[in-house]
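Sequence in, structure out.
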Amino acid sequence: MSVVFVAASQLPTPFGVFTMHGFLDEETGKEHVALTLGRVDDGAPVLGRLHSECLTGDALFSLRCDCGFQLEAALRAIADEGRGVLLYLRQEGRGIGLLNKIRAYELQDGGADTVEANERLGFGADQRDYAICLPMLRHLGIASIKLMTNNPRKVNALEGFGIRVAERRPLQIDHNPHNQKYLATKAGKLGHMLGQRHQGEVEPQ
């Protein structure tokens, strides 16, 4: 894997002062960051999240997805714990990129769900590659993680790379009229563990 560490600095946030570690994937040219709080290299399981970039949700306050809400909830949970890590991965639109994501949104405006839209554009339902996480976690000295996710693929990926998932913590948000179908598709087609009550709430009428 061609992901290399570049530099680290402090990052003050509303939740606390994190350390931001910058990494470069020399093969793709993509830049990824890890935010850490407290000591994470002592061998004890670390509260953490793998968060894929979502410009629309993380920065533009989109209600079409749950990404921005999950990002804030994860950082807040790490701050409350006083120790943790968030990997911010530059894999926009489940790996299809920003402009293709906008194309997928256009198809969704016409009635397609997120999986159907990706497939109509010639992509898989989820093209993210979590192998980039391994060199980042190794650099940080993290071998065991309490993972904040609803996505079983993230759990399986980390365990496949030899990272112990000591615990999975759900990271669920309330639905709204704009992300109702999105969340139902996550649960129904991508196997996200949203829980029976929550899944029932988001099933489209």
